[in-house]
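Consider the tokenized backbone below.
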């Protein structure tokens, strides 16, 4: 059972920034908990979602590089995950005629059978959750989260560049 901490809302100050970060961390932890219910870690759940959804959205399969980029994982973490899933028969590697350097990754029927209940459950949970907000609140949440994430990404990159 998950126990959620009740939080008091404050205005945007140093203390409310800590509150926001704590709330965001709680959200990440909820996804981690969800993933563990299916024997996954949050990174492998993210990879599974990319493997299932990217081909639908783009008509192309993912590569190890794309998974590393989109999940902010190291190539070693991605490689270990896909090796494990390949042994289980959940994924297969495909080379394309125009570029044999990159192995594309596709879920097998067995992999889709494993993934689909997870994806369906998560989609239902997320749709029900977002539906608890008004359309205006949904738009605000999306806009503010995009703005915050873009600024955070830039600040983290700036900090990383200053360390080099």
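A designed sequence for it:
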């Amino acid at each position: 059972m998950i126990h959620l901490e009740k939080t008091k809302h404050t205005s945007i100050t140093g203390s409310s920034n800590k509150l926001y970060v704590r709330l965001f961390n709680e959200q990440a932890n909820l996804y981690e908990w969800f993933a563990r219910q299916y024997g996954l870690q949050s990174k492998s759940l993210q990879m599974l979602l990319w493997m299932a959804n990217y081909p639908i959205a783009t008509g192309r399969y993912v590569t190890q590089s794309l998974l590393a980029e989109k999940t902010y994982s190291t190539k070693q973490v991605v490689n270990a995950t896909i090796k494990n899933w390949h042994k289980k028969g959940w994924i297969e590697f495909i080379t394309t005629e125009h570029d044999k350097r990159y192995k594309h990754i596709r879920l097998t029927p067995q992999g889709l059978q494993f993934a689909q209940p997870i994806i369906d459950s998560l989609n239902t949970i997320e749709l029900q959750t977002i539906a608890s907000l008004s359309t205006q609140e949904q738009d605000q949440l999306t806009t503010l989260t995009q703005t915050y994430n873009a600024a955070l990404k830039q600040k983290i990159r700036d900090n990383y560049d200053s360390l080099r």
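Confidence is low (pLDDT under 50) at residues 1-7.
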